[in-house]
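FAQ
Q: What does a multi-component entry look like?
A: The components come first, one per line:
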Amino acid sequence: MEDTVNSFSLFFNYGLPILLLVFAYFIGNMIEKGHFRNIRKREDAVHGFPVVSFDTMPEEWRAGSSTMVTGSIVISLDYFKRVIAGLRGLIGGRIKTYEPLLERARREALLRMTESAKEQGYDAVFNVRLETSRLANARRDGNGTAGVEMLAFGTAVKFAGRIG
Amino acid sequence: MKYIAKKPKEGINVSDVHPLVEAGTLVVGLTAIFIAIVLLLVFLIEAALYFVPAETEAELFADWLPEDLVTISPSDDRLYEAQMLVNRLSAHWADAPYTFRVEVDDSDLANAMALPGGLIIVTQGLLDEVESENELAFVLGHELGHFRNRDHLRALGRGIVLSLFFAVVTGNDVAGIGINVADVTLRGFNRDQESDADEFGLAVVYAEYGHVDEAWRLFERWDEQRNGTTGIVTYLATHPDAGDRVEQLERLAQRQQWPAEGEVIPLKW
Ligand SMILES: [Zn+2]
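Then the predicted structure of the entire assembly, as tokens:
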């Protein structure tokens, strides 16, 4: 009787978090790999479409019309990444498990912006900027980050003539 | 200027470290650091015990009480009787450096603990569980044994150090750390410390009554109850298994040829 109670509490105290960690690692890894594959495929599709960060339009671009295009993504980290980052937080250093996450966010946001420009028939985007904001709290005490938003925006232009 | 489309270089912003390698490094490294810290602290506590004599400790903690202690009414008979009993028992410890004080915690969970400066806390729950003065005498004698070996300071030191450590780790306010009964309750001693304390406790009981009858009757009852269905006795969480203890005590009494039969004194409340 007592043994059952003991093994139950042992399971809930240690087994469950570890199980969660393993589960989060595999699912998180799968989703991340899938996302990167998808990003590469779509980057290939928009390859050659000029997206630049100049704040003034290059002189050769004779713009017929322009608009602002945006692409934004909200991304969250899995439990595994969060735990590892927490351990990292004790001693400092690069939080390596966050890097692929932000890389995905940046590229996805840029892609969405570019795709939106392309879809609307624009020929190029300049003055591209990236912004990040922490979105929500993971815990009730106001600590922890549930996710970040990555916003890419820029000025899309339609060329009046061909580029010189 | 000619615009030449280039594909972004992959992975420049991502460290080429497998997440599991990162996790492994962190876990192993932090565990090593943690163990090193614990060893260092154990050493520091032992050093402090060596340099701070019990007399100094008794002086420092003369009027001290844990912050979260909720005592029963000071006019309660049980408090008075327990204090009287401790006074009689500690008389058998020649030149004890402490003036022992007894406080009764109003918790219903049976427990007893030794705290700095000769403070013995017994819970109301324990006083309700004991059925004779001899039973209570052994529990109190056992706590006296912890004072004699200064186990109480080791456990406390460990506890304070651990709460400090966790406060630093979790970024909590270090200033808010005090000595709480709740912490002490959760901290046990190791087996050797316990059997040393038992030995001292039984010797004190023998010195007081001239026999050891009923001294460990409380543990026998708890051991019997364990096989049935009872609530969890916290005393058992911080002390060795009641059954093992009874056997050890029986053997000790036989070895020392302390009489197992004698007059059992009823409780005065
Ligand atoms: Zn003990």
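Q: Is there any commentary attached?
A: Sometimes. For this entry: Residues 2-162 of chain A form a domain with the Translation Initiation Factor IF3 fold (CATH 3.30.110.70).
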